[in-house]
Design goal:
By secondary structure, this protein is of the alpha/beta class. It has one domain: Phosphatidylinositol (PI) phosphodiesterase (TIM Barrel), CATH 3.20.20.190. The chain has eight helices and eleven strands. The chain has an eight-stranded parallel barrel with strand order 3-4-6-7-8-9-10-11, surrounded by four helices. It holds the Pfam family GDPD. GO terms for molecular function: phosphoric diester hydrolase activity. This is Glycerophosphodiester phosphodiesterase. It comes from Mesobacillus zeae.
Length: 277
């Protein structure tokens, strides 16, 4: 069985953007090839998802890219959280869009996972960009963008402010289930590739769908239960790269690698790590 290449070639190069407040041990940025190993909400199987400790753990375990979700507070601040409510992953209740940034930041986003993570906060979008832009690539999901009119412009503004739209090809990928939102992002940030997320469905992804998606997107990102060599070839025929989500173990990731896809999103960046179980 062909093994997944967990470590891609590393070429030393100076980070293109000087990020204010960047927390990093070095200014040298790893320059990646295809995004092979992508930490789902950081290391969501080991730490509370979409938190700083989760992202740190993902990089510690060898992730090349960080996948995370972006939503908007009632006062227009961008925050990193998956659900449209804070109920599941914090000690609070309510819709993300109904809470202010100050209210969001007061919540405990760690104890639900394990008491040792008490006090973890929901990070802001800018916080994640500034902390990790010289350490990893980003797979950014616009979560339910129809709930937040204008969120595309705000995401674009943050990336432009930090000059991250000038980074190398595929260092940043923006994905969503919402094709209209992705088309808007592509107009705002033509240099940044976008990917269409696809949920599992029995009939798979049709040839005409790949062709239509390729008119505005560069990635086709299906649920891993849909990924096979035939689908990857179909996507490649239309110049689409493929990222599968979400592998729960190394065996699944390695099996997916045999299909020729470009990236695997996983909750367990290192499934042999048991230190947090």
């Amino acid at each position: 069985m062909k093994k997944l290449h967990w470590i891609t070639s590393i070429l030393g190069s100076i980070c293109n953007a000087r990020i204010p407040g960047q927390i990093t041990d070095t200014r040298i940025m790893r320059k990646y090839g295809p995004p092979t190993l992508i930490g789902h909400r950081g290391a969501a199987g080991l730490c509370p998802e979409n938190t700083i400790i989760s992202f740190d753990k993902a990089l510690e375990k060898g992730a090349h890219y960080l996948e995370f979700d972006v939503q908007e507070t009632s006062d227009g601040k961008l925050v990193v959280i998956h659900d449209v409510t804070v109920d599941r992953t914090t000690n609070g209740k309510g819709k993300v869009g109904s809470l202010s940034f100050e209210e969001i930041r007061k919540l405990d986003a760690g104890s639900w996972f394990h008491p040792r993570f008490k006090g973890e906060k929901i990070p802001s979008f800018s916080e994640v960009l500034e902390r990790y832009s010289c350490k990893a690539g980003f797979l950014i999901e616009l979560k339910k963008p129809s709930l937040y009119p204008g969120i595309e412009e705000k995401v674009a503004a943050e990336l432009i402010k930090l000059r991250l739209h000038q980074l190398g090809k595929d260092r940043i990928i923006i994905q969503s289930f919402d094709k209209a939102s992705l088309m808007k992002i592509k107009k705002l940030l033509p240099s940044i590739p976008v990917g269409v997320l696809v949920r599992h469905r029995p009939y798979g992804i049709l040839e005409r769908e790949c062709k239509a998606i390729s008119q505005f997107a560069q990635y086709l990102n299906p649920k891993v239960t849909m990924v096979n060599a035939s689908l990857v070839k179909k996507a490649q025929k239309h110049s689409l790269k493929v990222i599968g989500w979400t592998a729960q173990d190394r065996q699944t990731a390695e099996e997916l690698a045999n299909t020729g896809l470009d990236g695997v999103v996983t909750d367990f960046v290192d499934v042999h790590d048991s230190s947090l179980k």
